[in-house]
């Protein structure tokens, strides 16, 4: 039979052991809760920052200045043909002349706010004729095209014909 003294010692040990085992559980429970709250706050902050960035970028796209600088206004070739101030005639390439090559060189051109040709890209035509046409078109000058009272960059198609005579 256990003595009173051993029962008292066992009770004392169990009372000491119980709070010690609860302490780590409550500590880790609180730590886990803090981690969950910190993670939620981090996600909320990242979401808010992403939303702000999206709204800011969208406002930039909607402004007239940004849109007109980025995407030139497409204008028909017939309209731009009437706005030519200076038109350099292309030099017929000797190699193309000797080979009997003739036809259309079709180009896509970007005209700046000042009416000068900023970029030229080939759409179709013989490579020799396209190069000669592009060299000439880069020298062309147009009356600046206006949209809402402001000069704007435009994009148009230019066709240059080469004929052997």
Give a verbal description of the structure.
The protein contains five helices and eight strands; from the N terminus they run H-H-E-H-E-H-E-E-H-E-E-E-E. The protein has two domains: 4-62; 71-162, TolA/TonB C-terminal domain, CATH 3.30.2420.10. A four-stranded mixed β-sheet has the order 1-8-3-4. The protein has a two-stranded antiparallel sheet with strand order 2-5. It has helices spanning 4-62, 64-70, 77-81, 94-98, 127-137; strands at 73-74, 84-86, 103-111, 117-124, 141-142, 146-147, 150-151, 154-162. The chain is of the alpha+beta class. The mean pLDDT is 83. The relative contact order is 0.14. The longest helix has 59 residues, at 4-62.
Q: Gist?
A:
By secondary structure, this protein is α+β, with helices and mostly antiparallel strands. The chain is built from five helices and eight strands, in the order ααβαβαββαββββ.
CATH class of the largest domain: Alpha Beta
N-to-C SSE string, H for helix and E for strand: HHEHEHEEHEEEE
Tally of individual domains: 2
Q: What gross morphology would you assign? A: elongated
Please report which band the strand proportion falls in: under 5%, 5-15%, 15-25%, 25-35%, 35-45% or over 45%.
Answer: 15-25%
Q: The CATH topology of the largest domain is what?
A: TolA/TonB C-terminal domain
Mean pLDDT: 83
Rg, nearest Å: 39 Å
Q: What structural category characterises the helix and strand content? A: alpha+beta
Main beta sheet:
4 strands, mixed
Sequence of strands across the biggest β-sheet? 1-8-3-4
